[in-house]
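User: Hey, my collaborator sent me this sequence without any context and asked if I could get a structure. I don't really work with proteins. Can you help?
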Amino acid sequence: MKNITIILSLFTLVFASSCGNNKKELATTPTINVKLGTPIIENETYILASGKIEAVQNANLSTRMMGFVNQVYVKLGQKVNKGQLLLSINSTDITAKKAQVEASITEATAAFNNAKKDFDRYTALYKEKSVSQKEIDDITTNYQMAKARLDAATQIKNQVNSQLSYANITAPFSGIITGKYINKGDMANPGVPLISIETPGKYQVIALVTESEITAIIPKEKVKVLIKSSNEIVNGTVAEVSSSAKNSGGQYLVKVLLDKTNTKILSGMFTSVQFPVKNTPKSLNSTNAILIPISSLMHKGQLSGIYTVSDTNIAILRWLRLGKTYGDNIEVLSGLNANEQYIASADGKLFNGEKVIIQK
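Assistant: No problem. I've predicted the 3D structure and written it out in structure-token form, which is a compact way to encode the shape of the chain:
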């Protein structure tokens, strides 16, 4: 009996010690400091349209003649000046034709000068009534024919010179080479782009807008342009609004000039343009949007969610259905009410059911 009493006493002591340690561990369990945020209510209605950035001054250079490329004198990214030779095409046949034309001009010039002398001489004699009417008519006809042959030869020379200009592709303006689509020895074909060039520094966005929304877009309207690669917003102005969708696949082209910015911009970047709407078309939904920062979201596979806080300061994971992006914010379609607070930032990694301390 005495042994049993000793064993029970030891068991009670161990149990009490264990419970004390558990209480101590629970008391010292770390909690995460968090800050709460409230959804932003977007009162202004926007039309969102996808677009692509390009330089305001840009050109795709091609030729009107067919021939082998003799030499390409530039590289991608190279700066060039206006009038600088970029590419040359074999033009032996045109050069030979030019020599023939120049010989024809020399012959026609000599014939014209001789005919002009006769015309001037016979005109003076006709005034003195020393030659007949038929003689002056024949000389005049001969003079006019000689002049016409010289004019024709000169026009052919102009045509040949024009063809030679397409054999030597020069820069139409100062800029940077952004594309080189042909190499030495390749066959150049009429109308096929050979080199592209642009002037950096001033950019525009070409956006496509549907027919149900195009009437709500106003020229000279200030807009916001989201650069998708950097998730940065740049301001811009509506410069042109197309009035026809005949050649653009049923969508209307809208040109937006971008304001000067320190944001890194390159041609070809994809954008999302936010056009503010004053007179909302019936086809647009004018309800207020619930927005939260994209940085507050957590992701698991294809699911996106956010943490809210219960009445007992417990972090609760809430899965959301998201909508359109508005710069650094994103629209919440379901899963969070406009008056509900969420965890905007935390000092550590959050888990569902974890105790948190709300920082003011």
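In plain terms: The chain has three helices and 23 strands. You can pass these tokens on to your collaborator as they are.
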